[in-house]
């Protein structure tokens, strides 16, 4: 496979682009993306190229282009692009000769650097740049560019500014508002989204070096949606021309901004620019790097001693991107399926959060997990409206979520059907309904792992109860079988649309209903005041009756004579097909180069772990024999076209004791974004897969599991790993865990309460600050 990606040897913090190739712009724009959870910037190069996607997003600032489209995160004005003309020739790496090229993301410090030697018409110029989005000051981002003529004097013309002509694949979300130039080369552009009417104000201060540089005239132009300054200078050979851009961004959606009107935001931008003037690029970057250390790396360290250094890099790369994409500052927002790194899925939130990313936050940053689940509570209004619009009761969570009040945000039409030539209808927004139980699952897991009763009482319990009510109203009665079914749905395997009795959906629905029943009884017996409050809101007696009358009559697909759980009513009777020709090249979705979705629906082919995911989430409900038989049946039929699939298979294989298979799946999942496939990440990072790197590490190989409120740790280290060390939070206690092939060591760093856990050999207690050592071999 042709690739330009490089992993510096024995350095678990850096990932590099070794050679510039314009075919691979999208890969590096995504994996080198910068951000801090509030702001995310795709890593387009400083100079522009055909095919680039120069995206910058502010979390939670959705806008709708017109009534026939769904909301999306608008691509805000760009501040990183520059046009550089050296001795009359525009800098373009497709021209001339490029040598000594390197572009590296240091995930430890959050800084992206780039350097190369450019030779054109016999003259050489050394180019160096660096940029970051501050992890200390969420509204601040900065860029520094240094250009040095090597052997002869040079003339430079550099154009930089604030470019509001950005679009979302051609869609412009902003009006052409106010542009101003202030003394000291401070540029300010304000704009407003068309439908959601959110104000954005960007303020940039431009700085220059002076030694060996004679500055010429400066020209600033106010064009349509652009505020651009052109600087000219004569540079002595061997002296760098250094351009620095310090920018701040504010919006009328910001939770930390009191006055939301345009003039107040403009004043805030100028005030921040003035406050930043005494600080150099280096100082601001250093404080940002320290914030990364304080909040992420030192707060909850994870280290992997492995034969291959990419395994240690993978967990750092994953945690970096999780921090970059997660709006930990604001519970009105959640994580997009592509984070803040691309336009894919329009910045919308899916079940990915609850099933694949929430576990990381529950165990490492529970305060962030609480905010992510608070978003689901705040979204109850939209979920209730969706249920009502569909003729159901309670809360039906949307497949894609944006604004907390919006309800369903899934587009109706998608890719072209290769057989019919028509647009494919996206049925997920209509019938992929397991999301409702997934939300309840995530909230329950958070409560069980943290013991956060305040959240449970004020938010979590209401979500659990109203999602249980939805399922009670959603069931379909089959008079012939005298049982309830769930008809016409899509499970996690999105190849099978309009399925009846999808195993994952039915089991999740019954679990959700039972959770609601158990909660009603618990509140009635132990928390009468909360019971009364929720009864006044939700009529708990009626809810209990609705669920009790139906739950035991709900059909659950169970293991057949061969111990195989039918994925749905028809899956096991469909046509068998050899998948080898469609998976050998590693291209995701290659099956659809040959068949359309209707044809694939008639085959025993699975997009992602469906029954396997069910067995993983409810592992205590099924025997190891059943797990093994279903693994043997479904895995050969799975294309892993979804980035969610490999991570589940990794954990499941580790649980089954197949270390070699688990590690193989791990490596494939690890490399979805950071690996050598140069087209895998063009539309943005695979957020759930990134969360899955942590889950594979800690759940799969670390053997950590939280089951019905109980902690279990049974290590499954692959042979290629010598030691895994990490920390987790459990019931307000911080545990330091070290695993080798011979021993498991657990120490309670908080030490204010005893911790009970299950592991090899039985049950154990970690008392106070004592270290528990369990021999594994």
Automatic annotation (TrEMBL):
<dbReference type="Pfam" id="PF03632">
    <property type="entry name" value="Glyco_hydro_65m"/>
</dbReference>
<dbReference type="InterPro" id="IPR008928">
    <property type="entry name" value="6-hairpin_glycosidase_sf"/>
</dbReference>
<dbReference type="Pfam" id="PF03636">
    <property type="entry name" value="Glyco_hydro_65N"/>
</dbReference>
<comment type="similarity">
    <text>Belongs to the glycosyl hydrolase 65 family.</text>
</comment>
<feature type="domain" description="Glycoside hydrolase family 65 N-terminal">
    <location>
        <begin position="17"/>
        <end position="253"/>
    </location>
</feature>
<feature type="domain" description="Glycoside hydrolase family 65 central catalytic">
    <location>
        <begin position="317"/>
        <end position="694"/>
    </location>
</feature>
<dbReference type="GO" id="GO:0016787">
    <property type="term" value="F:hydrolase activity"/>
</dbReference>
<dbReference type="InterPro" id="IPR005196">
    <property type="entry name" value="Glyco_hydro_65_N"/>
</dbReference>
<dbReference type="InterPro" id="IPR037018">
    <property type="entry name" value="GH65_N"/>
</dbReference>
<dbReference type="InterPro" id="IPR011013">
    <property type="entry name" value="Gal_mutarotase_sf_dom"/>
</dbReference>
<keyword id="KW-0378">Hydrolase</keyword>
<dbReference type="InterPro" id="IPR005194">
    <property type="entry name" value="Glyco_hydro_65_C"/>
</dbReference>
<protein>
    <submittedName>
        <fullName>Glycoside hydrolase family 65 protein</fullName>
    </submittedName>
</protein>
<keyword id="KW-0808">Transferase</keyword>
<dbReference type="InterPro" id="IPR017045">
    <property type="entry name" value="Malt_Pase/Glycosyl_Hdrlase"/>
</dbReference>
<feature type="domain" description="Glycoside hydrolase family 65 C-terminal">
    <location>
        <begin position="705"/>
        <end position="766"/>
    </location>
</feature>
<dbReference type="InterPro" id="IPR005195">
    <property type="entry name" value="Glyco_hydro_65_M"/>
</dbReference>
<dbReference type="Pfam" id="PF03633">
    <property type="entry name" value="Glyco_hydro_65C"/>
</dbReference>
<keyword id="KW-0328">Glycosyltransferase</keyword>
<dbReference type="InterPro" id="IPR012341">
    <property type="entry name" value="6hp_glycosidase-like_sf"/>
</dbReference>
């Amino acid at each position: 496979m042709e690739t330009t990606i490089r992993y510096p040897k024995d350095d678990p913090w850096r990932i590099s682009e070794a050679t510039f190739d314009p075919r691979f712009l999208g890969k590096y724009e995504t994996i080198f993306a910068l951000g801090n959870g509030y702001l995310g910037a795709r890593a387009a190069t400083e100079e522009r190229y055909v095919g680039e996607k120069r995206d910058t997003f502010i979390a939670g600032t959705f806008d709708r282009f017109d009534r026939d489209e769904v909301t999306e995160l608008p691509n805000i004005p760009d501040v990183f692009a520059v046009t550089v003309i050296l001795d009359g020739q525009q800098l373009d790496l497709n021209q001339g000769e490029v040598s000594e090229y390197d572009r590296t993301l240091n995930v430890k410090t959050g800084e992206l650097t780039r350097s190369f030697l450019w030779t054109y018409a016999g003259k050489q110029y050394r180019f160096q740049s660096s940029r970051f989005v501050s992890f200390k000051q969420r509204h601040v981002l900065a860029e520094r560019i240094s250009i040095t003529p090597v052997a002869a004097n040079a003339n430079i013309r550099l154009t930089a500014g604030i470019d509001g002509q950005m679009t979302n694949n051609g869609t412009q979300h902003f009006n052409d508002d106010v542009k101003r130039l202030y003394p000291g080369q401070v540029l300010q552009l304000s704009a407003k989204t068309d439908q959601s009417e959110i104000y954005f104000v960007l303020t940039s201060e431009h700085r220059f070096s002076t030694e060996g540089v004679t500055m010429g005239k400066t020209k600033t132009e106010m064009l349509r949606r652009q505020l651009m300054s052109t600087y000219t200078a004569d540079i002595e050979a061997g002296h760098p021309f250094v351009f620095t851009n310090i920018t701040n961004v504010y919006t009328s959606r910001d939770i930390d901004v009191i006055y939301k009107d345009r003039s107040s935001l403009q004043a805030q931008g100028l005030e921040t620019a003035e406050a930043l003037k005494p600080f150099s690029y280096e100082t601001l970057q250093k404080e940002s790097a320290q914030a990364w250390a304080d909040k992420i790396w030192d707060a909850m360290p994870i280290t992997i001693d492995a034969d291959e250094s990419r395994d240690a890099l993978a967990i750092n790369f994953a945690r970096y991107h999780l921090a970059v994409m997660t709006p930990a500052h604001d519970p009105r927002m959640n994580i997009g399926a592509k984070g803040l790194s691309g336009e894919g899925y329009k910045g919308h939130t899916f079940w990915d959060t609850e099933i694949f990313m929430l576990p990381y936050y529950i165990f490492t940053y529970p305060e962030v997990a609480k905010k992510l689940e608070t978003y689901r509570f705040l979204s109850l209004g939209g979920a209730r409206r969706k249920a009502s619009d569909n003729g159901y009761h309670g809360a039906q969570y949307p497949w894609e979520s944006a604004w907390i009040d919006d309800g369903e945000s899934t587009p109706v039409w998608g890719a072209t059907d290769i057989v019919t030539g028509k647009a494919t209808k996206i049925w997920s927004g209509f019938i992929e309904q397991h999301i409702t139980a997934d939300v309840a699952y995530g909230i329950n897991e958070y409560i069980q792992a943290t013991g956060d009763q305040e959240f449970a009482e004020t938010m979590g319990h209401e979500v659990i109860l109203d999602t249980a009510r939805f399922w009670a109203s959603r069931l379909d009665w089959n008079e012939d079988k005298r049982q309830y079914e769930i008809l016409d749905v899509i499970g996690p395997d999105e190849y099978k649309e309009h399925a009846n009795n999808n195993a994952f959906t039915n089991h999740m629905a019954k679990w959700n209903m039972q959770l609601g029943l158990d909660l009603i009884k618990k509140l009635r017996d132990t928390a009468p005041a909360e019971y009364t409050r929720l009864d006044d809101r939700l009529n708990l007696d009626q809810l209990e009756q609705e669920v009790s009358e139906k739950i035991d009559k709900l059909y659950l697909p169970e293991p057949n004579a061969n111990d195989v759980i039918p994925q749905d009513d028809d899956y096991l009777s469909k046509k068998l097909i050899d998948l080898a020709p469609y998976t050998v090249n590693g291209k995701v979705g290659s099956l659809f180069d040959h068949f359309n979705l209707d044809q694939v629906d008639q085959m025993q082919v699975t997009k992602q772990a469906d029954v396997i995911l069910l067995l993983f989430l409810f592992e205590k409900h099924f025997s190891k024999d059943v797990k093994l038989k279903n693994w043997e049946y479904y895995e050969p039929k799975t294309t892993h076209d979804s980035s969610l699939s490999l991570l589940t298979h990794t954990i499941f294989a580790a649980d089954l004791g197949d270390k070699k298979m688990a590690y193989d799946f791990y490596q494939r999942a690890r490399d979805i974004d950071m690996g050598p496939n140069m087209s895998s990440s063009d539309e943005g990072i695979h957020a759930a897969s990134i969360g899955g790197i942590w889950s594979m590490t800690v759940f799969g190989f670390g053997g950590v599991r939280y089951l019905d409120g109980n902690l279990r740790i049974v290590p499954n280290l692959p042979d290629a790993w010598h030691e895994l060390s990490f920390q987790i939070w459990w019931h307000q206690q911080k545990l330091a865990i070290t695993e080798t092939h011979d021993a498991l060591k657990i120490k309670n760093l908080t030490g204010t309460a005893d911790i009970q856990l299950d592991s090899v050999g039985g049950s154990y207690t970690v008392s106070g600050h004592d270290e528990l050592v369990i021999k594994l071999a």
